[in-house]
Specification:
This protein has 251 residues and is of the alpha/beta class. A hairpin with a 2-residue loop joins strand 2 and strand 3 (24-31). An eight-stranded parallel β-barrel has the order 1-4-5-6-7-10-11-12, surrounded by seven helices. The chain is 37% helix and 29% strand. The chain contains ten helices and twelve strands. The chain has a single domain, classed as Aldolase class I (TIM Barrel). Helix 1 packs parallel to helix 2 (59-72).
Length: 251
Amino acid sequence: MVAKRIIPCLDVKDGRTVKGINFVGLHDVGDAVELGKAYAAQGADELVYLDISATVEERNTFTSLVERIALNINIPFTVGGGISTIDDAARLLDVGADKISINSAAVRNPGLIDEIARKYGSQFVVLAIDAKKVDDKYLITTHGGRQLTERELFAWAREGEQRGAGEILLTSMDHDGTRDGYPCELFAKLCSELSIPVIASGGAGSVKDIADVLSVGCADAALAASIFHYGEITVGELKRELKKQGIKVRI
Protein backbone atom coordinates (compact mmCIF):
# COMPACT_ATOMS: atom_id res chain seq x y z
CA MET A 1 0.00 0.00 0.00
CA VAL A 2 1.34 3.42 -0.95
CA ALA A 3 1.74 5.78 2.01
CA LYS A 4 -0.76 8.60 2.29
CA ARG A 5 0.71 12.09 2.00
CA ILE A 6 0.20 15.08 4.28
CA ILE A 7 0.55 18.39 2.42
CA PRO A 8 0.39 21.76 4.15
CA CYS A 9 -1.01 24.46 1.87
CA LEU A 10 0.30 27.99 1.95
CA ASP A 11 -1.86 30.63 0.26
CA VAL A 12 0.47 33.48 -0.67
CA LYS A 13 -0.32 37.16 -1.13
CA ASP A 14 2.51 39.64 -1.62
CA GLY A 15 5.04 37.09 -0.41
CA ARG A 16 3.24 36.38 2.89
CA THR A 17 1.16 33.37 3.87
CA VAL A 18 -2.50 34.22 4.46
CA LYS A 19 -5.63 32.31 5.43
CA GLY A 20 -9.34 33.01 5.18
CA ILE A 21 -12.69 31.35 4.54
CA ASN A 22 -13.63 30.67 0.93
CA PHE A 23 -10.58 32.76 -0.08
CA VAL A 24 -11.90 35.95 1.58
CA GLY A 25 -11.37 37.60 4.98
CA LEU A 26 -7.64 36.98 4.74
CA HIS A 27 -5.29 37.13 7.72
CA ASP A 28 -1.48 37.13 7.68
CA VAL A 29 -0.12 33.93 9.26
CA GLY A 30 3.60 34.17 8.54
CA ASP A 31 6.54 34.21 6.17
CA ALA A 32 6.03 31.75 3.31
CA VAL A 33 9.59 30.41 3.30
CA GLU A 34 9.96 30.11 7.08
CA LEU A 35 6.62 28.33 7.43
CA GLY A 36 7.59 25.95 4.64
CA LYS A 37 10.88 25.16 6.37
CA ALA A 38 9.05 24.46 9.61
CA TYR A 39 6.58 22.10 7.95
CA ALA A 40 9.38 20.26 6.16
CA ALA A 41 11.18 19.80 9.48
CA GLN A 42 7.96 18.44 11.02
CA GLY A 43 7.73 15.72 8.36
CA ALA A 44 5.45 17.13 5.65
CA ASP A 45 5.59 15.03 2.50
CA GLU A 46 5.11 17.97 0.15
CA LEU A 47 4.02 21.60 0.19
CA VAL A 48 1.64 23.55 -2.01
CA TYR A 49 2.09 27.29 -2.54
CA LEU A 50 -0.79 29.13 -4.18
CA ASP A 51 -0.44 32.73 -5.32
CA ILE A 52 -4.05 33.68 -4.63
CA SER A 53 -3.75 37.22 -5.96
CA ALA A 54 -1.69 36.54 -9.07
CA THR A 55 -1.54 39.48 -11.44
CA VAL A 56 0.91 40.54 -14.12
CA GLU A 57 2.52 42.97 -11.67
CA GLU A 58 2.98 40.35 -8.93
CA ARG A 59 4.32 37.50 -11.03
CA ASN A 60 7.95 38.56 -10.74
CA THR A 61 7.54 38.79 -6.97
CA PHE A 62 6.14 35.26 -6.84
CA THR A 63 8.90 33.93 -9.09
CA SER A 64 11.50 35.32 -6.69
CA LEU A 65 9.67 33.70 -3.80
CA VAL A 66 9.61 30.31 -5.56
CA GLU A 67 13.35 30.60 -6.11
CA ARG A 68 13.87 31.26 -2.39
CA ILE A 69 11.63 28.32 -1.48
CA ALA A 70 13.67 26.00 -3.72
CA LEU A 71 16.89 27.13 -2.06
CA ASN A 72 15.59 26.63 1.48
CA ILE A 73 13.27 23.63 1.40
CA ASN A 74 14.27 20.01 0.81
CA ILE A 75 10.88 18.42 0.05
CA PRO A 76 8.84 18.59 -3.16
CA PHE A 77 6.61 21.61 -3.59
CA THR A 78 3.90 22.59 -6.03
CA VAL A 79 3.15 26.17 -7.06
CA GLY A 80 0.02 27.60 -8.61
CA GLY A 81 -1.81 30.83 -9.25
CA GLY A 82 -1.80 32.91 -12.42
CA ILE A 83 -0.33 30.14 -14.58
CA SER A 84 -2.08 30.58 -17.91
CA THR A 85 0.57 29.70 -20.50
CA ILE A 86 3.37 27.21 -20.90
CA ASP A 87 5.79 30.11 -20.47
CA ASP A 88 4.30 30.80 -17.03
CA ALA A 89 4.81 27.14 -16.12
CA ALA A 90 8.35 27.13 -17.49
CA ARG A 91 9.25 30.23 -15.49
CA LEU A 92 8.30 28.56 -12.20
CA LEU A 93 9.71 25.13 -13.00
CA ASP A 94 12.97 26.69 -14.13
CA VAL A 95 13.51 28.42 -10.77
CA GLY A 96 12.94 25.24 -8.79
CA ALA A 97 9.27 24.30 -8.45
CA ASP A 98 8.74 20.53 -8.52
CA LYS A 99 5.20 20.72 -9.91
CA ILE A 100 2.83 23.37 -11.14
CA SER A 101 -0.87 23.60 -10.45
CA ILE A 102 -3.26 24.95 -13.05
CA ASN A 103 -6.90 25.77 -12.48
CA SER A 104 -8.88 28.58 -14.14
CA ALA A 105 -6.59 28.73 -17.17
CA ALA A 106 -7.11 25.03 -17.83
CA VAL A 107 -10.89 25.50 -17.78
CA ARG A 108 -10.55 28.29 -20.35
CA ASN A 109 -8.00 26.38 -22.42
CA PRO A 110 -7.97 22.62 -21.70
CA GLY A 111 -5.18 22.17 -24.25
CA LEU A 112 -2.84 23.82 -21.75
CA ILE A 113 -2.81 20.54 -19.80
CA ASP A 114 -1.69 18.62 -22.90
CA GLU A 115 0.91 21.25 -23.73
CA ILE A 116 2.62 21.27 -20.33
CA ALA A 117 2.40 17.48 -19.95
CA ARG A 118 3.98 16.95 -23.37
CA LYS A 119 6.87 19.27 -22.62
CA TYR A 120 7.58 18.39 -18.99
CA GLY A 121 5.72 15.14 -18.29
CA SER A 122 2.49 14.38 -16.43
CA GLN A 123 4.31 14.19 -13.10
CA PHE A 124 4.80 17.97 -13.26
CA VAL A 125 1.12 18.81 -13.82
CA VAL A 126 -1.44 19.09 -11.03
CA LEU A 127 -4.96 19.95 -12.17
CA ALA A 128 -6.58 21.96 -9.37
CA ILE A 129 -10.36 21.87 -9.34
CA ASP A 130 -12.56 24.13 -7.21
CA ALA A 131 -16.05 22.59 -7.15
CA LYS A 132 -19.32 23.79 -5.69
CA LYS A 133 -22.51 21.81 -5.17
CA VAL A 134 -25.45 23.20 -7.13
CA ASP A 135 -28.69 21.27 -6.69
CA ASP A 136 -27.59 17.64 -7.18
CA LYS A 137 -24.43 18.34 -9.21
CA TYR A 138 -20.91 19.52 -8.51
CA LEU A 139 -19.95 22.32 -10.85
CA ILE A 140 -16.52 23.80 -11.51
CA THR A 141 -15.76 27.32 -10.33
CA THR A 142 -12.92 29.58 -11.46
CA HIS A 143 -11.19 32.74 -10.22
CA GLY A 144 -10.78 31.49 -6.67
CA GLY A 145 -14.29 30.10 -6.50
CA ARG A 146 -15.96 33.35 -7.51
CA GLN A 147 -17.21 32.37 -10.98
CA LEU A 148 -19.45 29.37 -11.55
CA THR A 149 -19.16 27.43 -14.80
CA GLU A 150 -21.31 24.78 -16.43
CA ARG A 151 -18.53 22.17 -16.36
CA GLU A 152 -19.34 19.13 -14.24
CA LEU A 153 -16.70 17.91 -11.77
CA PHE A 154 -16.36 14.25 -12.71
CA ALA A 155 -16.36 14.81 -16.46
CA TRP A 156 -13.74 17.55 -16.09
CA ALA A 157 -11.51 15.44 -13.84
CA ARG A 158 -11.64 12.53 -16.31
CA GLU A 159 -10.81 14.87 -19.17
CA GLY A 160 -7.91 16.31 -17.19
CA GLU A 161 -6.50 12.83 -16.63
CA GLN A 162 -6.87 11.97 -20.30
CA ARG A 163 -5.08 15.16 -21.31
CA GLY A 164 -2.08 14.37 -19.14
CA ALA A 165 -2.61 15.71 -15.62
CA GLY A 166 -0.61 13.64 -13.14
CA GLU A 167 -2.74 14.50 -10.09
CA ILE A 168 -6.04 16.11 -9.24
CA LEU A 169 -6.23 18.61 -6.37
CA LEU A 170 -9.91 18.92 -5.52
CA THR A 171 -11.19 21.68 -3.24
CA SER A 172 -14.78 21.64 -2.09
CA MET A 173 -15.65 25.34 -2.11
CA ASP A 174 -18.58 24.60 0.20
CA HIS A 175 -16.13 23.36 2.83
CA ASP A 176 -12.98 25.46 2.25
CA GLY A 177 -11.82 27.15 5.45
CA THR A 178 -14.90 26.04 7.41
CA ARG A 179 -13.06 23.31 9.39
CA ASP A 180 -16.21 21.15 9.22
CA GLY A 181 -14.54 18.19 7.54
CA TYR A 182 -14.15 17.03 3.96
CA PRO A 183 -17.08 15.66 1.88
CA CYS A 184 -15.76 12.09 1.98
CA GLU A 185 -18.41 10.58 -0.30
CA LEU A 186 -17.47 13.07 -3.01
CA PHE A 187 -13.79 12.18 -2.77
CA ALA A 188 -14.49 8.44 -2.70
CA LYS A 189 -16.54 8.73 -5.90
CA LEU A 190 -13.88 10.81 -7.64
CA CYS A 191 -11.10 8.41 -6.66
CA SER A 192 -13.11 5.49 -8.00
CA GLU A 193 -13.37 7.15 -11.41
CA LEU A 194 -9.70 8.07 -11.83
CA SER A 195 -6.41 6.19 -11.99
CA ILE A 196 -4.26 9.18 -10.94
CA PRO A 197 -3.81 10.38 -7.35
CA VAL A 198 -6.39 12.68 -5.78
CA ILE A 199 -5.42 15.30 -3.20
CA ALA A 200 -8.25 16.32 -0.87
CA SER A 201 -8.58 19.99 0.02
CA GLY A 202 -11.13 22.10 1.85
CA GLY A 203 -12.47 21.57 5.36
CA ALA A 204 -9.79 20.04 7.60
CA GLY A 205 -10.45 20.94 11.22
CA SER A 206 -9.25 17.90 13.14
CA VAL A 207 -7.26 14.68 12.99
CA LYS A 208 -10.54 12.82 12.47
CA ASP A 209 -11.37 14.90 9.38
CA ILE A 210 -8.05 14.01 7.78
CA ALA A 211 -8.24 10.36 8.82
CA ASP A 212 -11.74 10.15 7.35
CA VAL A 213 -10.84 11.59 3.94
CA LEU A 214 -7.79 9.32 3.66
CA SER A 215 -9.76 6.20 4.60
CA VAL A 216 -13.48 6.64 3.88
CA GLY A 217 -12.76 9.23 1.19
CA CYS A 218 -10.00 7.11 -0.38
CA ALA A 219 -7.89 10.22 -1.07
CA ASP A 220 -4.19 9.71 -1.76
CA ALA A 221 -3.22 12.86 0.12
CA ALA A 222 -4.75 15.44 2.42
CA LEU A 223 -4.05 19.12 2.03
CA ALA A 224 -4.66 21.37 5.01
CA ALA A 225 -3.83 24.87 6.17
CA SER A 226 -5.53 26.30 9.26
CA ILE A 227 -4.77 23.45 11.66
CA PHE A 228 -1.08 23.81 10.87
CA HIS A 229 -0.86 27.59 10.53
CA TYR A 230 -2.49 28.23 13.89
CA GLY A 231 -0.35 25.65 15.71
CA GLU A 232 -3.20 23.35 16.68
CA ILE A 233 -1.19 20.29 15.67
CA THR A 234 2.13 19.68 13.99
CA VAL A 235 2.55 17.53 10.92
CA GLY A 236 4.49 15.01 13.00
CA GLU A 237 1.78 14.78 15.65
CA LEU A 238 -0.86 14.35 12.97
CA LYS A 239 1.07 11.54 11.30
CA ARG A 240 1.56 9.70 14.56
CA GLU A 241 -2.19 9.88 15.25
CA LEU A 242 -2.98 8.64 11.74
CA LYS A 243 -0.56 5.75 12.16
CA LYS A 244 -2.32 4.74 15.39
CA GLN A 245 -5.52 4.52 13.34
CA GLY A 246 -3.92 2.15 10.84
CA ILE A 247 -3.36 4.69 8.09
CA LYS A 248 -0.01 4.22 6.39
CA VAL A 249 2.08 7.40 6.47
CA ARG A 250 5.80 8.15 6.29
CA ILE A 251 7.24 9.05 9.68
